[in-house]
# Entry
Amino acid sequence: NAGVMQNPRHLVRRRGQEARLRCSPMKGHSHVYWYRQLPEEGLKFMVYLQKENIIDESGMPKERFSAEFPKEGPSILRIQQVVRGDSAAYFCASSPPSPAMNTEAFFGQGTRLTVV
Amino acid sequence: QQQVKQSPQSLIVQKGGISIINCAYENTAFDYFPWYQQFPGKGPALLIAIRPDVSEKKEGRFTISFNKSAKQFSLHIMDSQPGDSATYFCAARKTGANNLFFGTGTRLTVIP
# Structure
């Protein structure tokens, strides 16, 4: 049973370009979360999605950032017109259909975005 | 605003010693408190978790102590080993919610 798969592992973009980060949840998991980790900091929640629905995007910047989790295929975190401040590690986590009392979220290995 | 405060930022412990990392929170809506271990270049992995209805949980060399009245919880690593060297994050989740609030992390180094 493969874990949460993120790709690419490393992504370099020039300022103004678009970055697309992909996340395939664990088998049987239909809930996906995106977190951002700045250097020397903890993870900050960005968005929580279920298949075809955004449930909570309270941590997403208002501009340039978007996320989707289509019926088929991986979840995508999209950053338009990247700036140097977007450089960070972006982690995806997934959990089973009932993320309640006794379930945990499993994290992928992250995508390290560098904006040059 | 940091909802979960973690200390120390870094910690050096001799092999065989006890590593202690502390976290504090204010929001009484939190009802789930996990600890994550992260190695360089890897994602966080759940180590151990506790709910506020118990004051202590032990799994092998790892123990969480929870003080509900003080709104504090801590991770104790007994007989620390060089392989424990990693960054440790405490986190908290609100009742009925799905996202986690993380502390800022503690970089643990266990020296032989």
